[in-house]
Request: fold
Amino acid sequence: MNNDKDRVFELALKILTDNQINYWVCHGTLLGIIRDNKLLEWDSDIDFALWDDEYSKEDVLKVFSEDERFKLEFVPEEIDSLHFSIFGNRVDINFYTR
Reply:
């Protein structure tokens, strides 16, 4: 992995795993990994998902905010997600109800 998007993916994975946050990859990120064995070049974000009964948005915001490179973006119409920008890329953390 050598481009910024791959680097961002690795940084986000490290934050999630270091904080023992149960997650899965979803949306276009999952499609690229399964179909092409890499992140899709044309996909505009990196998508992760969490169960909302395991982690609050505040918990996730706290651990991502500890890395000053991740900047929170506000997307008012998406209330079940957190969006972070880093190195010109976006990481979306989506919260799902069981």
